[in-house]
């Protein structure tokens, strides 16, 4: 395959004093040589691969020295894109980096599209689709745990697992082919069906295992949208502030994408909480009052977690009871606040109003009970099993949807086998399952999907 040479600012993870402009493609080294000058005068093209060089960038038109830089030279194929890659490390802010990029573009590189480096790695066979998607997740990861999920996926763990399932299916398909080619043995069908049932059952169980991790994986990836509700003055703002203070708030600005949003997250024991409508809570204290019961019910329904705050020093009111109603059936934690004051609330009644809902008591004034609350939040969604590092999480909505489809087709195959349907008919469902699983790793996907997926990436990756 031939690709032109692309370039982009590739700001490394975390803030650093160094910015990197990355070049990839057949002409990467030649373009760099036009502007990069080492003190000793040697050209990059004559240097060995995977080496770092000090020198200056000089604008060939004006002869002006633009920047003092370090240049990393990585020749194909042992690079991220499997093409020649040159990385220009320059210090200084955005102005300096932009000047370097402009110079490189002027000398013949093309500005990379979002995700184009990763796309090339994919197209050149360096990584598969699920790994490419993991690169994007990594960029957006909000907590260490979310990052670990992305890292194991990028490492190819999900791909290997899917590969194993497809291999098992392929083996049964091969068996069927053999049988069709040698029909003179009439007991072959009896041999093939049990094998097929065995393999398909195994594949189905593995898919189920993966799907069981999906809700947690999704939470890690996208955050747990959390709404704090309660009557005026019960301590909602205090709760919000204490969550934000104890857990460094993460403000993510997803740059370079069409969805340039700024959202506020807090990291609670590795679980990113997306505080929904926090501004609203701050301003008017009460979303029910502000947007009305019906609309707030809708906001509540979209939330993954409700923190319903009650005042321990007051009796339950009609308003409180209405809130209980509004959140029934949802993942809710009851926070009974102000335990430092004499208790007036009827705890028996609170328990009656909730079934199976975790109740935590706090005194936000005295900074008590917040640990228990955090534990309750983490426990509600992860029950401690997040520590089991050997689990492979599926977090990506596209993967989850495909796994559900694969589960349906494999079930069809198993159902047909049970009913004594001929093996070459069952084979159709097995083949379909194999194809669907292939879409996860990009084996059987269309170009349009590939383009769409990669266009969601950040520039420079
Ligand atoms: P909101 O209206 O629900 O947002 O409640 P706020 O967080 O603004 O708190 C209302 C009042 O209750 C403030 O004066 C807080 O200082 C006070 N408050 C909050 N938590 C506690 C607590 O645990 N104990 C006591 N005694 N007062 C609290
Ligand atoms: Zn308040």
Automatic annotation (TrEMBL):
<dbReference type="InterPro" id="IPR004520">
    <property type="entry name" value="GTPase_MnmE"/>
</dbReference>
<dbReference type="GO" id="GO:0042802">
    <property type="term" value="F:identical protein binding"/>
</dbReference>
<feature type="binding site">
    <location>
        <position position="87"/>
    </location>
    <ligand>
        <name>(6S)-5-formyl-5,6,7,8-tetrahydrofolate</name>
    </ligand>
</feature>
<comment type="similarity">
    <text>Belongs to the TRAFAC class TrmE-Era-EngA-EngB-Septin-like GTPase superfamily. TrmE GTPase family.</text>
</comment>
<dbReference type="InterPro" id="IPR027266">
    <property type="entry name" value="TrmE/GcvT-like"/>
</dbReference>
<feature type="binding site">
    <location>
        <position position="257"/>
    </location>
    <ligand>
        <name>K(+)</name>
    </ligand>
</feature>
<dbReference type="GO" id="GO:0030488">
    <property type="term" value="P:tRNA methylation"/>
</dbReference>
<feature type="binding site">
    <location>
        <begin position="252"/>
        <end position="258"/>
    </location>
    <ligand>
        <name>GTP</name>
    </ligand>
</feature>
<dbReference type="Pfam" id="PF12631">
    <property type="entry name" value="MnmE_helical"/>
</dbReference>
<feature type="binding site">
    <location>
        <position position="252"/>
    </location>
    <ligand>
        <name>K(+)</name>
    </ligand>
</feature>
<dbReference type="InterPro" id="IPR031168">
    <property type="entry name" value="G_TrmE"/>
</dbReference>
<dbReference type="GO" id="GO:0005525">
    <property type="term" value="F:GTP binding"/>
</dbReference>
<keyword id="KW-0342">GTP-binding</keyword>
<feature type="binding site">
    <location>
        <position position="22"/>
    </location>
    <ligand>
        <name>(6S)-5-formyl-5,6,7,8-tetrahydrofolate</name>
    </ligand>
</feature>
<dbReference type="Pfam" id="PF01926">
    <property type="entry name" value="MMR_HSR1"/>
</dbReference>
<dbReference type="GO" id="GO:0046872">
    <property type="term" value="F:metal ion binding"/>
</dbReference>
<keyword id="KW-0963">Cytoplasm</keyword>
<dbReference type="InterPro" id="IPR006073">
    <property type="entry name" value="GTP-bd"/>
</dbReference>
<dbReference type="InterPro" id="IPR018948">
    <property type="entry name" value="GTP-bd_TrmE_N"/>
</dbReference>
<protein>
    <recommendedName>
        <fullName>tRNA modification GTPase MnmE</fullName>
        <ecNumber>3.6.-.-</ecNumber>
    </recommendedName>
</protein>
<feature type="binding site">
    <location>
        <begin position="277"/>
        <end position="280"/>
    </location>
    <ligand>
        <name>GTP</name>
    </ligand>
</feature>
<keyword id="KW-0547">Nucleotide-binding</keyword>
<feature type="binding site">
    <location>
        <position position="254"/>
    </location>
    <ligand>
        <name>K(+)</name>
    </ligand>
</feature>
<keyword id="KW-0460">Magnesium</keyword>
<dbReference type="InterPro" id="IPR025867">
    <property type="entry name" value="MnmE_helical"/>
</dbReference>
<dbReference type="GO" id="GO:0005829">
    <property type="term" value="C:cytosol"/>
</dbReference>
<comment type="subunit">
    <text>Homodimer. Heterotetramer of two MnmE and two MnmG subunits.</text>
</comment>
<dbReference type="Pfam" id="PF10396">
    <property type="entry name" value="TrmE_N"/>
</dbReference>
<feature type="binding site">
    <location>
        <position position="233"/>
    </location>
    <ligand>
        <name>K(+)</name>
    </ligand>
</feature>
<dbReference type="InterPro" id="IPR005225">
    <property type="entry name" value="Small_GTP-bd"/>
</dbReference>
<feature type="domain" description="TrmE-type G">
    <location>
        <begin position="223"/>
        <end position="382"/>
    </location>
</feature>
<keyword id="KW-0819">tRNA processing</keyword>
<feature type="binding site">
    <location>
        <position position="237"/>
    </location>
    <ligand>
        <name>Mg(2+)</name>
    </ligand>
</feature>
<dbReference type="GO" id="GO:0003924">
    <property type="term" value="F:GTPase activity"/>
</dbReference>
<keyword id="KW-0378">Hydrolase</keyword>
<feature type="binding site">
    <location>
        <begin position="233"/>
        <end position="238"/>
    </location>
    <ligand>
        <name>GTP</name>
    </ligand>
</feature>
<feature type="binding site">
    <location>
        <position position="126"/>
    </location>
    <ligand>
        <name>(6S)-5-formyl-5,6,7,8-tetrahydrofolate</name>
    </ligand>
</feature>
<dbReference type="GO" id="GO:0002098">
    <property type="term" value="P:tRNA wobble uridine modification"/>
</dbReference>
<feature type="binding site">
    <location>
        <position position="258"/>
    </location>
    <ligand>
        <name>Mg(2+)</name>
    </ligand>
</feature>
<keyword id="KW-0479">Metal-binding</keyword>
<feature type="binding site">
    <location>
        <position position="461"/>
    </location>
    <ligand>
        <name>(6S)-5-formyl-5,6,7,8-tetrahydrofolate</name>
    </ligand>
</feature>
<comment type="function">
    <text>Exhibits a very high intrinsic GTPase hydrolysis rate. Involved in the addition of a carboxymethylaminomethyl (cmnm) group at the wobble position (U34) of certain tRNAs, forming tRNA-cmnm(5)s(2)U34.</text>
</comment>
